[in-house]
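INFO batch 0412 | record 1 of 1 | parsing
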Amino acid sequence: MVENIIGAGRQVLAEYGYEGASTSRIAATAGVSPGSLYQYFPHKDAIVLAVLERYGDTLVSHVTTRMTGQFAQPAPVVVRTAVAALLDGLDVEPPLLRAVVEDGPRLDDGRALRAFEQRVGELVLAYLTTRRRELRPDVPLDTAVWMLVRTVEHLTVRYLLDRPPVPRDRFTEELTHLVLAYLRPPS
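INFO prediction complete | emitting tokens
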């Protein structure tokens, strides 16, 4: 029942946005009565937060799966793979991405986003730690992780929401170049 309600919440949020999502609309989509819905979730925000949490878990799982076994590859391949994985994971349901970006932070004070960034940051830190000798020596790893996660996240989300006239391959290459330029020691 909980999975059914969360799935319906995701569908309604993607279709109607936060403002258009109501517990009655979610209950109808889930095929349950509002009373049944309230047995599991006390209000709309609880459902939306469950959707956000699930969305973040799925995205982290997708990126982690794509990155598994990639650390031995050259840095351009690893960065390109990470950017492509994030693009693919976020581009599954653009209307849901818009709702998550626009409405998510105000609902939970950004906790779901910070949890996602923390988990992706751990993956980035693991990679950078294996390549420490090849990186700029003047940047602490925690600083590099913070900068990289938020830069890649922000640009990827904006690319998917804004849909600029930049081909996806070109965007991936440009963002890969940006990340690598940041990480390289000065010549």
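INFO post-check: The radius of gyration is 19 Å.
INFO record closed
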